[in-house]
């Protein structure tokens, strides 16, 4: 009870509210692209007043970028869990394979994330302002991949990343099975990390 005898004021979980709103952006983006993610539609999808979106994110641009940041953070957390599941001392090849698999729609979570990323990609191509906001993002994934590669194959980091991104689109379109995409990644990894007999 509150000291004046009334009920205790509810504690608002701001992070949960931001995620709830971001999830509405993701659903709209995955279903129809970012053009669907207007302030009004996101508010309706999230079941909250439009002013709450502005309170938690600010402008529509900040809403879109904030939702993307949360999506990427969730994806990174899932990736870290899968890498941890490899055991105490996974080989660089195992870690790299796991990292590349994160880029593919191999389960429903990754498929939805890929669809949302595709919507953002199209928007970034068309919107110079948004594109400028992410242009100077550090190439963390490329750097991680390069670190996992043997010295003589460091130049392959960008190619592996681009290859996985290409496989992603082919899988989303249904032109490539998950099994074939995994085989293609394994083929490249076998070239880089040859099995010593």
UniProtKB/TrEMBL annotation:
InterPro entries: Homeodomain-like_sf, HTH-type_TetR-like_transc_reg, HTH_TetR, Tet_transcr_reg_TetR-rel_C_sf
Location of the DNA-binding region in this protein: 38-57
Record's keyword annotation contains Ion transport: no
Residue intervals of the HTH tetR-type domain: 15-75
Keyword Transcription regulation tagged: yes
Keywords from the UniProt entry: DNA-binding, Transcription, Transcription regulation
UniProt xrefs under Pfam families: TetR_N
Official protein name in the record: TetR family transcriptional regulator C-terminal domain-containing protein
Organism of derivation: Paractinoplanes aksuensis
Phylogenetic classification of the source organism: Bacteria, Bacillati, Actinomycetota, Actinomycetes, Micromonosporales
């Amino acid at each position: 009870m509150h000291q004046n005898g009334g009920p205790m004021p509810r504690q608002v979980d701001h992070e949960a509210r931001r995620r709830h709103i971001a999830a509405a952006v993701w659903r709209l983006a995955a279903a129809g692209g970012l053009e669907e993610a207007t302030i009004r539609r996101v508010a309706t999808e999230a079941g909250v007043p439009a002013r709450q979106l502005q309170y938690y994110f600010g402008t529509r641009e900040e809403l879109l970028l904030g939702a993307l940041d949360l999506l990427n953070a969730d994806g990174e957390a899932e990736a870290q869990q899968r890498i941890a599941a490899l055991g105490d001392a996974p080989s660089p090849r195992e870690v790299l394979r796991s990292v590349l698999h994160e880029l593919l729609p191999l389960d429903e979570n990754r498929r939805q994330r890929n669809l949302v990323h595709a919507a953002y990609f199209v928007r970034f191509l068309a919107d110079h302002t948004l594109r400028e906001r992410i242009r100077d993002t550090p190439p963390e994934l490329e750097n991680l991949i390069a670190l996992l590669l043997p010295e003589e194959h460091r130049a392959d980091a960008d190619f592996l990343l681009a290859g996985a991104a290409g496989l992603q689109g082919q899988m989303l379109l249904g032109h490539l099975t998950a099994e074939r995409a995994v085989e293609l990644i394994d083929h490249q990894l076998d070239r880089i990390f040859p099995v010593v007999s």
